[in-house]
Amino acid sequence: MELSEKLTTLRKSKGLSQLELAEAINVSRQAISRWEVGTATPSAENLKCLSEYYEISIDELLDIAVDGRKEKKEEKPVPESKAGVPQKLLILACTLIVIVAIATWAIFYMFQRTEKEKVGLQELESKEYMSGDVIDMDIKSTNS
Question: What are phi and psi of 117, to 5 degrees?
């Protein structure tokens, strides 16, 4: 929350008018108005008076964390779809998909080819695989 918004919220939560607050911390009503509109910022002395009057620390008034850094405003989380994937990671993923697809196709193709070349025992005995030129003969060795 901006300082101007915080000052307005604190004043209204106490039920005060700008004039009543101005009189309480000894400044003009116009100064309070400029602080709440955001056209001016209270001095260090006025911030001290405001923090004492509202019974909060200057850190709380200015939204400053204990470690000295200004607290971050509530940020809306970025949807993952818009977060953006690094280009190198996207290229790597696409390349990997292509390699896996090619390897799968090659393995499938080789498996189909070897299935076609397999010949069963019954097929070997059939006439289809026996050449007409082949003569079945027993070769006996003779010692003459």
Answer: -85, -15
Look up the pTM and report it: 0.46
Helix or strand holding residue 94 (H, E)? helix 87-117
CB 40, CB 3: distance < 8 Å: no
Mean pLDDT in residue range 19-30: 92
CA of 108: how far to CAs of 51, 84, 94, 105, in Å?
77, 36, 21, 5
CA gap 13, 71 in Å, rounded: 23
With CA atoms as reference, report the closest residue to 48 among 71, 25, 28, 18: 25
Q: How many residues does the chain have?
A: 144
pLDDT per residue as tens digits for the range 49-82: 998 998 988 888 887 765 545 545 555 565 555 4
